[in-house]
């Protein structure tokens, strides 16, 4: 039973189907064993009764035959026709001399000096009946192998249905368990789908009473988690949003102050303040993006091609950083894969990856941007990132070995979007096949299916 459960794995349906099926088989075998023992006892009684009845019927016939015979030679009763004699008999006198025997009787196998009643040898079951004051004894015998064969055939008749019963029972139990556990499987699927930025309550319709308390506890936990995340994201988004206006006002005043000051040392200090305000403005923008990446709304109801969104992102970055001559962009002519990823979320993802490559890559090297059916890749030159630092780059405010300005949030935002949208972000440094460089790859798990649906 334990071996079967291990074979069935962790699936509750398999465990129940195999467990109940094997349990039924074990019970059937036990019942067949008990039935075999009872059947053996009943068969012994039936065949013993037959031995006794044959002896009692042969006795008067043998007595008449002995009185009428004219020779001392033992007589062998000829068979009526070809047949197998299961019960044989031998008629002896008080001295043990054989007077009469059946056609198949083996006198050497039937012992002499038998008393009235039943006896058993190594191969025979024997019954002896005496008459005429013990002067005539009729001994009937049956081969024990015949009895054993009869019992075996009867037990096999009970066991043969087991070969068909077990598969049918397993299939029936599997179907019954599947129908019974269908609401549980739907609840499990709904709970698993909550991993893509969806923290709504899972439907508990049709769940068994034994599972309802667990489902209610899970929904309550999801509600508390949603409230905590919404509070955290709301605080981050509100803080970043509230900072934008005063930062923009302070930046404008600082730029005016730089233009009005005639004293160069003071103008330099004003320019330093301006740069700090610009960094603070970029940081607030990144915080807004991070709040969106960690929140909902990453999945769209209708698939849309990603190529046009990527072109807009590239054009915007070219205007901001004047890096058009460094960007090597490849987008499929048909617009690229169509995914259920929200276009705004992909724009934030692509912008952060490309901006990260432009800022921290080799200033004289190109940035290769590839959009394919199954992935989106951004590759740049530059020194390799140590392996112990590479995995940490997706954490907020973690930065690699670079002196370029930055907030340390770009890759964290990209990782959050990929996690929330069900995508995979792979970072590699150095670039596979090279000695330096950095590559970020976003893999689309459902790109092929989305393209088929669109076409």
UniProtKB/TrEMBL annotation:
Transmembrane segments: 16-39, 158-181
GO function term, MF aspect, one: phosphorelay sensor kinase activity
Subcellular location: Membrane
Catalytic function, reaction form: ATP + protein L-histidine = ADP + protein N-phospho-L-histidine
Membrane topology, as annotated: Multi-pass membrane protein
First-listed, main subcellular location of the protein, grouped into a coarse class: membrane
UniProt keyword annotations, A-Z: ATP-binding, Kinase, Membrane, Nucleotide-binding, Phosphoprotein, Transferase, Transmembrane, Transmembrane helix, Two-component regulatory system
Limits of the Histidine kinase domain: 238-448
Entry EC no(s): 2.7.13.3
Name this protein carries in UniProt: histidine kinase
Protein species of origin: Prosthecodimorpha hirschii
